[in-house]
């Protein structure tokens, strides 16, 4: 009995420690928000993540309410006036927790620059409490678990669950006699089962063989080159044509930007060719927001929306904007939409260092980046969720005209688990005007580049499902969301 009593006492001690740590972290985080309410736009957290009945939850609720009332900053008078408006119960609760003096004491203790640390602590202690409530033995593993970050906790639980089920699952270790199944394999080839979902470019698709499930396609280019344009132009048309659900996970563009791009694409690529009244008419993607749309453009846009509503089912084009990017959030979304909604295709625009790294970029930061892409691949691979992920990635500036993995610099190892690596740049004026770039069309006839038009060249540096020996040239009109195949070229590596 004495032993049992001692164990219980230890468990209670650790529960108390978790509650105490949670309380301090929550109040430090909330106090930071009181010092600068604009931080609430950057650090989102649910009320349920705070200790139920705790002071931080109450003070956070007050701040949420005041923000809804359009307060940009608060002082003691503002806070207490607002609390008074909530009624007697709220007033008593506020007083029981020490009122403004409690807030002030924590405000004096916090450093706003450390808000990310406070935020991360709130998340990880909340996760630990929820694990304990779910029956996980947090107490016995307290010494180890209490040292883990939120992301590390996530990885730990994923690993634990994987170990539990892998112990009884030997399907991945099935030994097969390769003599058998040959004819079935040929049948799969004939029925194109080995080819992935095609992209909206015959030339590029002939090289990469589409977007195969269980694989990652990475499109990398310098800032401003048009990685999002390339992605929306190559992937979204196929999604629209096939009515296949996709989830777009974005951290640099909002939903309306993607909505507008989609409408413009439909207008210029479908409506303009299928309806006589719009023949020869185009809708500009950019440059007209100040003046609005003219009558013809508005009519064309409305027709595009009608076409979209008529031809696409609900839940095909799904979008989420990660205001603070983290690999954990991306993985969680992929898991949710793959398992719960059966989504097989995902876009991550843009893959980068987690936001919590901030400006403190070190060698360890690049290691984390590499580890994150491995974690993502382990989730999407054939033996797990078996989905396809299209990733955009930003390159540092480089003078090189021949693009390969070397231009990835410190982050070159992110390509280790990528099935297809596409590095993209604009065709230069010199390459166009001086005929420096020889392009052969798909039919074997040489194409002459028009100096007045814009082109992009795609370097296929890594391609598990095809060749890497040739580059693809595509004509682009980024203002109209139009791309056209030109052909293939060969650019030699510089020495």
Mean pLDDT across residues: 84
CATH class of the largest domain: Alpha Beta
Helices and strands, in N-to-C order? HHHHHHHHHHEHHEHHEHEHEEHEEEEE
Task: Provide the β-strand percentage band.
Answer: 5-15%
Cross-sheet strand order for the largest sheet: 3-2-4-5-1-6-9-10-11
Overall helicity: 40-55%
Name given to the CATH homologous superfamily of the largest domain: P-loop containing nucleotide triphosphate hydrolases
What is the name of the CATH topology of the largest domain? Answer: Rossmann fold
Structural class of the helices, strands and pairings?
alpha/beta
The separation of the N and C termini measures 78 Å
Please tell me how large the radius of gyration is: 27 Å
What is this entry, summarized?
By secondary structure, the protein is an alpha/beta fold. 45% of the residues lie in helices and 13% in strands. The chain has a nine-stranded mixed beta sheet, sandwiched between helices. The protein has a two-stranded antiparallel ribbon with strand order 7-8.
Can you lay out the helices and strands and say which pair or pack?
Elements: H1 2-35, H2 55-68, H3 76-85, H4 88-96, H5 99-107, H6 115-133, H7 142-145, H8 150-166, H9 182-190, H10 202-208, E1 216-222, H11 227-234, H12 236-242, E2 246-250, H13 255-274, H14 295-311, E3 317-321, H15 327-341, E4 345-349, H16 363-380, E5 388-395, E6 420-426, H17 429-433, E7 439-440, E8 446-447, E9 454-463, E10 471-477, E11 482-489
Parallel strand pairs: 1-5, 1-6, 2-3, 2-4, 4-5
Antiparallel strand pairs: 6-9, 7-8, 9-10, 10-11
């Amino acid at each position: 009995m004495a032993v049992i009593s001692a164990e219980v006492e230890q468990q209670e001690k650790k529960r108390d420690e978790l509650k105490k740590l949670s309380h301090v972290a929550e109040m430090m985080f909330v106090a930071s928000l009181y010092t600068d309410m604009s931080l609430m736009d950057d650090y989102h957290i649910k009320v349920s993540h705070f200790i139920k009945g705790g002071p931080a939850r109450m003070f956070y609720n007050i701040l949420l309410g005041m923000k809804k009332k359009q307060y940009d900053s608060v002082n003691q008078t503002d806070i207490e006036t607002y609390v008074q408006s909530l009624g007697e119960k709220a007033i008593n609760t506020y007083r029981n927790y020490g009122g403004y003096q409690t807030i002030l004491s924590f405000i004096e203790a916090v450093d706003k620059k450390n808000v990310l640390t406070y935020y991360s602590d709130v998340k990880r202690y909340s996760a630990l409490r929820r694990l304990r409530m779910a029956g996980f033995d947090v107490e016995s593993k307290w010494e180890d678990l209490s040292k883990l970050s939120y992301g590390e906790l996530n990885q730990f639980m994923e690993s634990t669950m994987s170990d539990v089920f892998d112990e009884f699952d030997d399907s991945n270790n099935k030994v097969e006699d390769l003599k058998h199944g040959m004819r079935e394999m040929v049948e799969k080839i004939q029925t194109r089962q080995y080819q992935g979902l095609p992209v909206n470019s015959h030339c590029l698709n002939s090289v990469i063989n589409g977007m195969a499930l269980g694989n990652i396609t990475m499109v990398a280019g310098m800032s401003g080159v048009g990685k999002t344009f390339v992605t929306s132009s190559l992937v979204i048309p196929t999604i629209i044509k096939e009515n296949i659900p996709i989830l777009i996970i974005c951290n640099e563009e909002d939903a309306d930007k993607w909505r507008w791009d989609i409408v413009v694409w439909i207008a210029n690529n479908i409506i303009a060719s299928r309806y006589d009244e719009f023949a020869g008419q185009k809708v500009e993607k950019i440059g007209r927001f100040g003046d609005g749309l003219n009558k013809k453009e508005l009519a064309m846009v409305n027709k595009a929306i009608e076409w979209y509503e008529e031809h696409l089912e609900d839940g095909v084009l799904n979008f989420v904007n990660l205001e603070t990017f983290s690999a954990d959030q991306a993985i969680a979304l992929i898991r949710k939409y793959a398992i719960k909604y059966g989504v097989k295709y995902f876009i991550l625009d843009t893959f980068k260092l987690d936001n919590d790294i901030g400006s403190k970029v070190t060698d360890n930061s690049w290691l984390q980046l590499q580890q994150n892409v491995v974690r993502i691949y382990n989730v999407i691979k054939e033996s797990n969720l078996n989905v396809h992920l299209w990733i955009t990635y930003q390159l540092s500036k480089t003078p090189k005209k021949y693009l390969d993995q070397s231009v990835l610099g410190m982050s070159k190892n992110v390509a280790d688990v990528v099935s297809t690596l596409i590095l993209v740049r604009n065709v230069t004026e010199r390459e166009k005007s001086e005929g420096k770039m020889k392009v052969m069309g798909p039919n074997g006839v040489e194409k002459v580049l028009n100096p007045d038009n814009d082109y992009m060249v795609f370097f296929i540096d890594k391609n598990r499902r095809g060749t890497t020996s040739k580059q693809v040239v595509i004509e682009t009109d980024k203002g109209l969301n139009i791309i056209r195949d030109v052909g293939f070229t060969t650019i030699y590596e510089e020495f």
